Amino acid sequence: MIPQIYKNWKRGSTDGVPSLMLFVWAISEVPMGAYVIIQKMNIPIQIQPQILAVLCLVTWAQTLVMTHKWRVWTAVLTTFATGAIFAVMEVLLVIGLNIPYKRGVDWPVLFIGILAGVMLGLGLLPLYYEGWKRGGRAEGVSTAFLFTDILGAFFSLLALIAQSHFDLLGGIQYSVVLALEVGLLLLHAVWLWNTRKIRAAAKRNGQTYDEYVSSDSDGPKGAKKSPSISSHGSDEEKRSECHSDGAKEEV
After folding, report:
1. Which residues span the membrane (predicted)?
2. CA-CA distance, 124 to 206, in Å (whole number)?
3. Are the beta carbons of 175 and 157 closer than 8 angstroms?
């Protein structure tokens, strides 16, 4: 998520980054964090949901300011308050569900694990919608973020395999996230292939893809004029003016 935060800050925009996805991901880490702690998984896996929740909330705050035009301090205070509520919820889940779990009643823990997995998957759907609106283009979303998250899911799967007991539910969760994010990258790759000629023409014209497409749709007014044509036109105008002045003198 750090590459996404940096990209948002650098371009000063969160266009194409759904606020809903970030909030759903952040809140999904509450049951996910409780689940991995109660199951006593490897320490890196227990820490991962906490870090992801914080980073998702930071990115969510960026969308509040840049997309929804909130005041900075309003967004910061809202984010801190939301994070505090999430932390309290996770602590209560761990304490409340650990008691029956030690007595052999494990369905509540299984339920929150499934809930977390479903929410993680649903959180990625807004990205598919944004991509569909743009013909598969992952605009605004950092491909470095997607690559990093895919690697994170992959190594988390390896960590589960390395445990003495493989957690099937955790494995399914990471597999679903990995598959959905690979799907997003494939869609973007298809868009890159389909627009390769347009992007090459834009590069030759010294424009971005969006600028080139916009100027093309605007027609002659939006088209970038060639310097040689402009100078040629100026020379013709000068000749015409000289001819006119000469005619006046003869009269």
Report:
1. 20-38, 50-67, 74-97, 109-129, 141-162, 174-194
2. 34
3. yes
- The residue type at 209: Y
**pLDDT tens-digit profile of 121-161?**
888 888 888 888 887 887 778 778 888 888 888 887 887 78
Q: Which of 193, 183, 149, 186 is nearest to 25 (CA)?
A: 149
- Residue 23's nearest CA partner among 59, 70, 77 is 59
- Give the pLDDT confidence score for residue 164 in this predicted structure: 67
Q: How confident is the model at residue 117 (pLDDT cuts 50, 70, 90)?
A: confident
Within 8 A by CB and 6+ apart from 177, the residues are 120, 121, 124, 149, 153
Given 3-state DSSP classes, what are the helix, strand and coil percentages for the chain, each rounded to the nearest 5?
Answer: 80, 0, 20
CA–centroid distance for 207 within its chain: 24
Q: Give the mean model confidence (pLDDT) for residues 88-101.
A: 94
pTM beyond 0.70: yes
Residue in the structure block whose two tokens are 């929410």: 119
What residues have CB less than 8 Å from 108, skipping those under 6 apart? 97, 100, 101
